[in-house]
Fold these 3 entries.
Entry 1:
Amino acid sequence: MDNKRIYDNYAFISYKREDEKWAEWLQRKLEGYKLPTILKKTNPSLPRHLRPIFRDKTDLGGGILSDELEKQLQSSEFLIVICSPHASRSEWVNKEIQVFIDEGRLGNIIPFIVEGLPHAGSAVEECFPQALKNIPKDKELLGINVQEIGKERAFIKVIAWMLSLRFDSLWQREKRLRRSYVATMLAFLLIIFYFFAIPSRVELTVKDLSHRLPLPSYAKIIFNGTEQYIGSLDTVLILDNIRPYYKGRPYMLEFNAGYYDTLRFQGHFSWGMTTYVTLELKRDSTFSVYQGIVYDEQEGVPVQDAVVTVDN
């Protein structure tokens, strides 16, 4: 690698039109890659991102390499060749490879094998263009074979090749990052499931501290617009099937019954699965409690079993 030279592109992707999806995928992956922070700290000279990556979209046939493509090749540090039987028969891909070879940048050519075999001996299976097959045995490029190691490992091998890093260490970091990503996604999905799939409920305790009057048959509570009649005080009502996404939101509660003041108040659902609410009832002004003694002033003693009528 010529370290004194400054390149505009990190890589030039050479491919045949039939392999365009592979070229698009690789360009997208490379330009979206972010070097792990710990590697950047230990190797400050390494780039944080690998972009731009040039991908020729003309796929011209034979002929002289255009001035623009010649310029892009000259300004690209690496040449990634999408190798397949289609590419092996492309004169255009072959010319692009030859430019790098003629400049003495053989070590910057990365064969990315997506189909077929190198040096197969059969035109149907051969994936290397002629320029790669003409390389002397002692300088032969083995390439990165997607068919053997899979897309993701092959992609990380390209990164390791371009940054002169050990594949094993880079791959292990990538796997840890993926596991962390999966764990984060699972946690996020569990949170979503908790808030949108697991219903909440309310345990409502109704209290009357005085116990002076019977509870009217029409006593009811209205909870977020839903009515429910209650048959006795000092009881616990279970209000279930409350929509999960109400967690943390406000609710309105109202109590209506004869002999009692109408009670309204606003609270908030808890973030847990159950919200606990205690309702302490208050009497209205219709009733009062009288306590006293009927006293016989002449005899000077209380009257036993006296009956007092108030307001008829």
Entry 2:
Amino acid sequence: MPNKISAVIVTYHPELKKLKEQVDRLVKQVQYVVIVDNNSANANEIKQVFSEASYAGVVNLYYNGENKGLGYAQNKGISIAVNLGVLYVLLLDDDSLIEENFVGNLISEYNHLTNNGKKVGAIGPVYYNEETGEKYPITKYIGPLIDRRHPENEAVEATFLIASGCLIPVEVLNNVGLMNEDFFIDYIDVEWSFRAISKGYRLYATPKAQMNHIIGERRANVFGRKISIHSPLRKYYLFRNSIFMIKCPYISFGYKVREIIFNFLRFITYMILTDDKKRYIRYAFLGYKDGFVGKKGRCTYNF
């Protein structure tokens, strides 16, 4: 392996068969795999699976005694990977399955871009939904408008990258900083992306690396546009952290304008689509409120 790379996987009640398949694919492409478990109900089973001799010296396990959020777990995994002496980290969800030569293609494209004078902060794949055949566009903001890009051969610049499948040099993390732990979940990758851009870095997605990824619990078609549907609790984090993004000084003005407009549209849309309107309204309202008053971390409400 020409480059020292560690995958960082955050697990939360993972499907063990899929997690093992994920790690088995990764060990052929990276030097280390760091698994940070966020207090899963099957944590003992995870430990048993990866205590096999074949994973010794490659798979590193860390267990959080409580779920402190995605950002905290990602940062813990990154810190462990950095202490192993790697030069790059590959962030992954616990159900993300990479394809053959996935990591090699990311590194190759990263080197191509940097050799051509690009200051690359991170590079990610193109995502698709295996169940629906949908291929997600790469998002580039132009003011409040979106240029949705579908790259065919060459890497394209993006305003933000989804964390799962994203390859980040350790040097960039040292300059930009780690993930925002205050958000707990949602918008973490978007906030980090804008922070990297504010430091002069550029983000890219390459079609030479592709990955199956499902956004939200399900997808719905609204006026010809696919949108992600999340649980009422997740809506708390989405609405709250959206307010944090609007208040953040290094987020672009155009993105803030779009968030303000779409927050209203999202509320109405989900109100129509959700089967649990009462819980949805309560979590959405409290998310907005806590965003304005600056309450961060884990949601303390339970409806």
Entry 3:
Amino acid sequence: ALGAVFEHVYSNASWTKPSTTGFMTSLQSSVLGNVAGGMFEPLPPEARTMAERFRAAGYQTAVFTSNPWAGSLSNLERGVDVLRDQGVPTRAGSSVELHRDFWDWRDDFPGEPYWVHFQTTDVHDPSRPVAPFAGLFASPGEKLQLEEWDSTLSQWRGRNAERLQTDPGVERNDWAETGIDRRHYFSVIRSIHDETMASQDYQLGRFVDRLKEAGQWDNTLLIIAADHSLYAGA
């Protein structure tokens, strides 16, 4: 078989820092101490990262990400020979730039074996799909409508800031009091999210094609995952 698909997956957290440190160390957030008040605590030295383990086994190691929470802000540069964890001009098009960084690295340091981790922001809020995928599932009118809805919801939260502080349950009234159709709102968000997914899927396909052209595919183990989902509480 060329691969396997896991239909049931579980994230260690609902946002990048605790989730990424979790799968880079195989440890729960409760062990790493980076939940709640520990938001900005670096990864403890006792927790060995995947990069450290691979380097100890004789691998070259690299991390290419446009989210520093998946890099230096989480102390995940440990054991990494080459690290890029800064933003890109177009967040939704990060795969293009990060994959280019990877091939430049391989040209400069072609030795094997190597381990590399990509953590893109193609699929990340705020979603700004790039051409030719922008408009594939959500029309320009729907995107303008979403901006108006977001503005209305933001104004509602501003007017009700004091109520929300004393009774968080008040937030459940936002849809009724603003008159926004909740299902339509999240349907548009999902459509835009799907556009960014389609874009990233295309770039992954191009990446695999190039690995095959370079004769590296048969000696490659490719794992595709995500650090967390979208709108887990919505």
